[in-house]
Automatic annotation (TrEMBL), chain A:
The keyword Lyase does not apply. It comes from Pelagibacterium lentulum. It is a multi-pass membrane protein. Gene3D superfamilies: MetI-like. This is Sugar ABC transporter permease.
TrEMBL record, chain B:
It is found in: Cell membrane. It is a multi-pass membrane protein. Residues 65-275 form the ABC transmembrane type-1 domain. It holds the Pfam family BPD_transp_1. PANTHER family: BLR7065 PROTEIN, SPERMIDINE_PUTRESCINE TRANSPORT SYSTEM PERMEASE PROTEIN. Keywords: Cell membrane, Membrane, Transmembrane, Transmembrane helix, Transport. This is Amino acid ABC transporter permease. Belongs to the binding-protein-dependent transport system permease family. CDD domains: TM_PBP2 (cd06261). One of its GO terms (biological process) is transmembrane transport. It comes from Pelagibacterium lentulum. InterPro entries: MetI-like (IPR000515), MetI-like_sf (IPR035906). The chain crosses the membrane at residues 6-25, 37-56, 62-90, 102-123, 151-170, 203-220, 258-278.
Amino acid sequence: MRHMFLRFFSRIGFSVFASLIGALFALPLIWFLFAPFNARAELGLAIPNPFTLSNFVTVFNNTFAIRGLWNSLIQSVGGVIFVGVSATLAAYALSRSNMPGKSAVTYVLLLFSSVVSGSAAMVPIFLIVNSVGLIDTHISVILVFAGGLLPTAMFILRDFIDGIPKSYEESAMVAGASPVQAFFDVALPVIRPGIVVIVVWSFVNIWGSFLIPFILLRSSEKMPASVAIYSFYSEAGTPIVTLLAAYALLYSLPVVALYLFVSWKFGFRFFGGIKA
Amino acid sequence: MAPATILVAVFVIAPFFWVIFVSFTNRTLLGRTAVNPEFVGLANYISLFDPVSFFQRGQFGFSLILTTQFVILSALVGQALLGMLLAWLLQSVPKGVKSITETFVIAAWILPEVVIGFAWFAFLDYDNGTLNMIMESLGLPPGDWLLQQPFWVIVIFNVWRGAAFSMMLFNSAFASIPPSYFQAADVAGASSWQKFRDIGLPLIRGHVVTVLILITMWTFNTFTPFLLTNGGPSYRTELISIYTYRVAFRDFDFGKGAAVGVIIMLINLVFALIYLSLGRKRAKGVKT
């Protein structure tokens, strides 16, 4: 009996403790739930009175702000297409070919991609992009991210394809399909969940990134939202809080939506586990 | 295969060699040496390791030591312990508590870094910030945290930002333990701490090293504190990534910036080799 009591109370204790940690994590974010809807928002926490969407109207009337979101979309979607297509083809080839030393290829790729981090490679990446004359272009950001995210994407996808029996395509080819048909009509539909995974993963990575566009882009018309957000400062250098808060919320929405999508579809563990 | 090969070759493998090459030159952004950089041998490395200025604020040695402290405190101690605590705790709490806590911990991890940086800027604001509001309501003196304790701010900031990562890694490690082990312990009347000490921890020991290396690499390379502190005040939060950025893109000394990049890569290489060899060992262990 005493045991039951102890267990019961330790359960309550655990719940209280866990909620406390949760609250500590929530604290810095609570401000964000209110400020975007407060026309007089400051850096302090205040319940909006009245509750208004006027900050969002200001953001939508600010062409520069909207262009930032649009640029983020161009760069993320562009990067995702490159990563998705080339990782699928490469992972498929790596998984299905009898090429000698293919596990060594994956090993070396992973090694390189974890050693050449953004902080180590910002100088050579800038110089390479500069020497081919692509500074201040969307395509430079897209290509740099595609190259950087590819090794991990290939690794995830290869694991996925390795888990699918080869006999699927073999039986299609016995039935008279060409290798290309076998890939598109038989293999691709089965791999699709894996592709969704890397597409979401690379989209979130590019959408949220700051350093690469920050060093590769110059003109304000091409800045993604992550860099454009720094223009919402008054001439004295103080942030225009109302605008910033509403903009930051809009900018976060796709990430939150994708997170909800992935946790609904695959369970949350996976999503955060592989974020670079 | 071809497009992937080209992309990886140009943007991953080429930078690796290019950064080594540039680190031996006096390449700058503007001026004569921008077009015709000269080979300067080890001059960039010698200036980084100059014993006179090595430990001074804003110099390479200071930044390296700062980064080491940052990694030890925020990743190895903060994120790892908090992540493990959360992963263990959330196994045995009601579903509602679990999902709410998880939501906030994960939100800190998935929201874009710029947004997080701004949220913390508001949170720590001296006049109106939420933190000082709480301090005052508890009768404690408010603080100008970003000026007074910038280092501890970025340490706590990074624990907050990255705890979700180790929580999720430990979570899947705990999930790999057969539930029957815990059921048997429950029957024997073991407490949660006993179960953790005698079953949980010993069985995930192999995973712990993996998690520690992953979060170390992540924290060592992070640039996010820049968005909160800009590396300041007076270089007190200038982590190695921020130092590289300043040397290369504010002082426009690409040669020296590249030399720092090479050293970062060497450190990354050590961690990556340990990580990959652990993974291989485990893969072999499963097969035999």
